[in-house]
Amino acid sequence: MREFSSMVVLRSTPKIMFHAMRDHLDRIAPSLSDIRSIEEIDRKSSDTGYEIVNRWYARQIVPAFLQSRLGAEEISWIDRAIWREDEMGCDWSIEPSIGQGAICCNGTTRFEPAMAGRGARALFKGSLTIAPTFVAAIMGPLQAPVTALAESIATTIIPSNFRAAAEAAAKLT
């Protein structure tokens, strides 16, 4: 398991950041260099907040030599989040289109007051686990280095995307 986190302080209120990230991901997507689009699939309100499901599409595609092994041509994932306004944040999980069931990624996002009330601190943390059997089935003896590389890339890209999304959300306000 690899843990990751990111924190960014922006000139916006926590409430504005919360609503921008919850409700306008489709408008934020063009600001993310490795994301082609974000599509909202489902939104349900409850007593405690909103349950939102989005599909994220990466700009990259699966290399041709891996497409048959992975059963996919594109890289995408489902993001399931429970947004709670009373907590100014959400709990989320990601389900990749490849390696379904073999890759587990989840975490939290929170927005807090910063800069003496003139800004917001956006906190993002999570963990990523890739089942060794999944990588072994694809890469054989290269399992350990490929797993380490995939975890390293994911735990760098995911926080980087969050930072870019938060910065773009702040500009929407």
Description of the molecule:
With 173 residues, the chain is α+β, with helices and mostly antiparallel strands. The protein has one domain: Alpha-D-Glucose-1,6-Bisphosphate, Chain A, domain 4, CATH 3.30.530. It is built from five helices and seven strands. The protein has helices at residues 14-23, 25-28, 64-70, 132-139, 143-172, and strands at residues 2-10, 35-45, 50-61, 74-84, 89-96, 103-114, 119-130. A seven-stranded antiparallel sheet has the order 1-7-6-5-4-3-2. The longest helix has 30 residues, at 143-172. The radius of gyration is 17 Å and the shape is globular. The model has no long low-confidence stretch (mean pLDDT 84).
- Global shape: globular
Q: Specify Rg, calculated over alpha carbons.
A: 17 Å
Strand content: 35-45%
Q: What letter string, H or E per element, gives the SSE order?
A: EHHEEHEEEEHH
- Biggest β-sheet: count, sense, barrel? 7 strands, antiparallel
User: Might you state the CATH topology name?
Assistant: Alpha-D-Glucose-1,6-Bisphosphate, Chain A, domain 4
Write out the CATH superfamily name.
START domain
Per CATH, which architecture?
2-Layer Sandwich
- Compute the separation of the termini in Å: 36 Å
Enumerate the spans where pLDDT stays under 50 for 5 or more consecutive residues. none
Whole-number mean pLDDT: 84
**Overall strand count:** 7
Q: For the largest beta sheet, what order do the strands appear in spatially?
A: 1-7-6-5-4-3-2
**What is the CATH domain class?**
Alpha Beta
User: Fraction of residues in helices?
Assistant: 25-40%
| Structural class determined from secondary elements | alpha+beta
Helix count? Answer: 5
